[in-house]
Amino acid sequence: xxxxxxxxxxxxxxxxxxxxxxxxxxxxxxxxxxxxxxxxxxxxxxxxxxxxxxxxxxxxxxxxxxxxxxxxxxxxxxxxxxxxxxxxxxxxxxxxxxxxxxxxxxxxxxxxxxxxxxxxxxxxxxxxxxxxxxxxxxxxxxxxxxxxxxxxxxxxxxxxxxxxxxxxxxxxxxxxxxxxxxxxxxxxxxxxxxxxxxxxxxxxxxxxxx
Length: 210
Fold this sequence. Notes:
- With 210 residues, the chain is an alpha/beta fold.
- It contains seven helices and seven strands.
- It has one domain (3-209): Vaccinia Virus protein VP39 (Rossmann fold, 3-Layer(aba) Sandwich), CATH 3.40.50.
- The chain is globular.
- The termini are far apart.
């Protein structure tokens, strides 16, 4: 299955999630979202939110932030556009592939990706795009599920992959993939790693561009 087909499958999955996304994921990820937004607000400036979904986070950014929200699913962005219309600091909401960002190098002060990386067909390619489009001294702020990688939990995560992939996300994604990516990319450094609820299976990762 090629990348384009995988990308279409993810978009279709989140089109299906759109009517119930806030109900299913709103409360579960509320604390993680608030921590990521607080980190972005400390920097301010132009913020790209990758995988903004229904725009559930948009109202909580500081007015010092100029927001640009993107998602691969046009269906899920319908709610985001409704939310954005009530806010004065949203620059645009657009359908865009995280692996092919249509922005100049260093266009943003902050790139925020909340619970997105494990839903991207080629995560390292998307991470490279985040690093390219954030300015020097800016940050990439990620909330993400961290897989065990090995042991019983790692085995279960691997076994679930055929199911979760059809739902639009992967369960098997250890922290080492982020660490290896940062080394390979060479332009970023990890400045914070923090466990998030629920159950400690999620983490906040902050990378600063050198």
